[in-house]
Write a structure and sequence with these properties.
single chain, mainly alpha, 62% helix
């Protein structure tokens, strides 16, 4: 059992796996507001920034799990309210999915 737990912990290490959500939150905090998204997208295109949360190896276009998570999240937000970074995340998603 110790080996299984150690292996599972190791598999979640780093910004590309278990830490991916933390990397996305840090990115959203750097962006700050929806007004800063165009500048951020330009920086991504110029390879000065990385667009986190859009690079799953298997799901090349849109992660089908995202629709389910978004629906549940909207239900939760309707009860507890939402962090202002949610608006940044939703607008960034919209812009990124519709950009050339």
């Amino acid at each position: 059992i110790y080996t299984a737990i150690a292996g599972a912990s190791g598999a979640l290490y780093g910004p590309s796996h278990g830490g991916a959500n933390e990397a996305v939150v840090r990115m959203l905090m750097r962006i700050g507001t929806t007004e800063n998204i165009p500048k951020f997208i330009d920086a991504v295109k110029n390879r000065k920034e990385r667009l986190m949360g859009f690079g799953h190896r298997v799901y090349r276009n849109y992660d089908p799990r995202a629709k389910i998570v978004q629906k549940v999240a909207d239900e939760v937000f309707s009860v507890v309210g939402k962090d202002p970074l949610i608006d940044v995340a939703k607008e960034l998603e919209r812009v990124a999915l519709h950009d050339d």
